[in-house]
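I hope you will forgive my troubling you with a question about protein structure. The matter concerns a single protein, recorded as an amino acid sequence and a row of backbone structure tokens. Please examine both parts with care and let me know of anything in them that strikes you as inconsistent. Thank you for your consideration; the sequence and its tokens are set out here:
***
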Amino acid sequence: PFFAGVAASADAVIMQDGVAKRGRLVSGNYFQVLRGSMQLGRTLTPADAIAPGGAAVVVISDGLWRVQYGADPRIIGKEIVLRQGRFQVVGVAPAGFGVGEDIATSFWAPLTMARAFGVADPWSGSGEYLLSVIVRLRDRSAEPQVRAWFDTWARQRFPASSDAAPVAVRVE
């Protein structure tokens, strides 16, 4: 009842032309939860993230679009190479899009494409993945209740000595 939306993401760093590029692998509703809109094309959607290895699509940052692709407005629908996979560009995010560290992100691809980026696959069951979770509250006044619930849940779910316990929790 407190949440208007929940989305997940994981870091993906790739080398491209000798330069490290930081990406985010995101759940299909990531842009909807953040209420993100694109300056070109569209956001990723739940239909892009139905099954592991599914849609090889990507949203690129304004910076990557300008520097790597010369701000070509015809980039939408074109395939680009990320790591060693081919991805169809479906959107260009506006400058400064994101939350916190997202601002330095070069691209966003479906979390279901984790294997293509050499990132631990959340569906493998190995427990070796690090996910960031974003929650949009229906009502900001519920924040203290949600924070208390989460703290209790985390203590019950992850013993103090657990390597799987959340590394950091940030409420913005």
About this structure: The two ends are 19 Å apart (CA to CA). The chain is about 15% helix and 30% strand. The beta strands are 3-16, 19-26, 40-41, 57-60, 79-82, 85-92, 107-110, 132-137.
